[in-house]
Write a structure and sequence with these properties.
Structural class of chain A: alpha+beta
Structural class of chain B: mainly alpha
Distance between the termini of chain B: 19 Å
Helix content of chain B: over 70%
Number of helices of chain B: 7
CATH superfamily of chain A: Winged helix-like DNA-binding domain superfamily/Winged helix DNA-binding domain
Largest interface: A-B, 28 and 31 residues
Largest sheet of chain A: 3 strands, antiparallel
Number of domains of chain A: 1
Order of helices and strands of chain A: HEHHEEH
Number of domains of chain B: 2
Largest sheet of chain B: none
CATH topology of chain A: Arc Repressor Mutant, subunit A
Strand order of the largest sheet of chain A: 1-3-2
Helix content of chain A: 55-70%
CATH architecture of chain A: Orthogonal Bundle
Oligomer: heterodimer
Strand content of chain A: 5-15%
Radius of gyration of chain B: 27 Å
Number of strands of chain A: 3
CATH class of chain A: Mainly Alpha
Amino acid sequence: MNAQFKKGVLELCVLVLLDRKDCYGYEMVDEISKNISISEGTIYPLLRRLKKEGLVSSYLKESQDGPPRKYYQITEQGKEKKENLVVEWNEFSAAVNDLLILKTENGWLNE
Amino acid sequence: MNKEEYLKKLDKLLKKLPEEDREDLILDYEEHFGIGLENGRTEEEISEALGDPENVAKQIKADYMVKKAEDKPSPGSIIEAVLAVAGLGLFNLIFVAGPSLLLAVVIISLVVAGFAVIIIGILTMLSPLLQIFFPKYIHLPVQGGILGTLIMIVGGIGVTIMGTFFVIVMAYAANKFYKVVIKLLKSNIDDIKERTEVFK
């Protein structure tokens, strides 16, 4: 997979999660690593970048057990970006799927 | 590596960042350890999953330096950014850092040369006056009289204007160069960062 592609995917995952609900960093890592193996430490630099670009914001919230946690929240701009990324992703995966089905029909995969 | 070792190492590696940013980041990682421990993982497991602090720090620094160079372009900030990005991998040291550093050095020397021309112009302009005070040390090519003095002054003004014009043109060129270098750095950061470190 090429670099730009992977980068977009992690960004998309984070924005999609935050669009559902506000999360703290660990929560996002946990959620994403259920499906994709990531290097956990890289989520924080990514979140910082998203914050600087104005796609997310953060706030502190008390937790029942332990110190307050830093929650991230998606901004309007972030939502827009997410929509764009989702469209791109759908187009891309549909194109790949089309290709796979075409190959199967022609028997390329059944040889 | 346990929690304290990991955070200490990261903090040390990030000492070039402003205090506020660094503290903020360390708090993020501290929180990560805290929640991981609550969830029954060991400090060693969490360190392992976070990834080598060297890699984490390099990414943060490269991001930060490039942002800084973009906001406040100067030879110094550009060189810092280039070095930070070069720290991400050898490939970049050769193909990005080399040409960029050369470019930065060329720009700096041309600007210095421009200022030198300005100084020469000003000195030429003042030379008739200086000669009166230091007759032993200053020999004017055009000797004596009001005409000679006038030639030196007008010539001096001419050279000064030339130097100023040169510096302005170089500043403009430098600005263009900066933009190209920053673009180059950004594309390289994205490449390297994602190639090896984000996904395992």
